[in-house]
Amino acid sequence: MANDASRPRTSQSQPSSWHAPTSGRTLSAGALMVFGGAMAILEGIAALARDDLFVVTRHYVFEFSLTGWGWVHLLVGIGLVLAGCAVFTGALWARFFGVFVAGLAAIANFLWVPYYPWWALTLVAVNLFVVWALCSGMHREADTAPSTA
After folding, report:
1. C-alpha–C-alpha distance, residues 149 and 132, integer Å
2. How far is CA 85 from the centre of its chain?
3. 110-132 per-position pLDDT tens digit
4. pTM above the 0.90 mark?
5. DSSP string covering 53-80, please?
């Protein structure tokens, strides 16, 4: 019977940075994207369902109707949840899509500050952390990938 130790191993000792979420930062970014997306969905539903829930300020530069902001948060939240789930698969496109959607969510929450200040600033911080974690995790994992030469 042939010994398995004599066979050359075809698998890599480390997972490829392009196909696996090897960084804890990447996994925490995915979890925060799902959380932030769920909160954005709830914000959107609350803005669509009950207009009297939020304080509407006057003479704000980015003055949309509350229904318009509700749709913006609902769509961005759905995008964040989908991107967060895709980041867990380890696909490279999911990281780029996650950076894009988290950036949009940070901008949307920054513009949402007059309506719900503390929660909007909290979600801005969460989304900026997601962008940082996805970008720095990608750079760090690319440095530790085994070379083919």
Report:
1. 30
2. 9
3. 988 887 888 889 999 999 999 99
4. no
5. GSPPPSS-TT---HHHHHHHHHHHHHHH
Residue 20, token pair as written in the block = 């696996």
CA–CA distances in Å: residue 53 to residues 50, 56, 61, 77: 6, 9, 21, 19
Q: Are 47 and 69 in contact (CB under 8 A)?
A: yes
Indicate if the alpha-carbon torsion angle 89, 133, 135, 109 is positive or negative.
positive
Yes or no: say if 26 and 60 are a contact pair by the CB < 8 Å rule.
no
Contacts of 36 (CB under 8 A, 6+ apart): 77, 80, 84, 102, 105, 123, 126, 127, 130
pLDDT in tens, 36-74: 999 999 988 988 887 666 666 666 666 667 788 889 999
Task: Please give the Cα distance from 140 to 76 (Å, whole number).
Answer: 28
**Are 125 and 113 within 8 A, CB to CB?**
no
24 or 147, which is more confident? Answer: 24
Rounded (10°) angle between helices 66-89 and 24-49: 160
The residue written with tokens 């490829």 in the block is 16
Tell me the three state secondary structure of residue 38.
helix
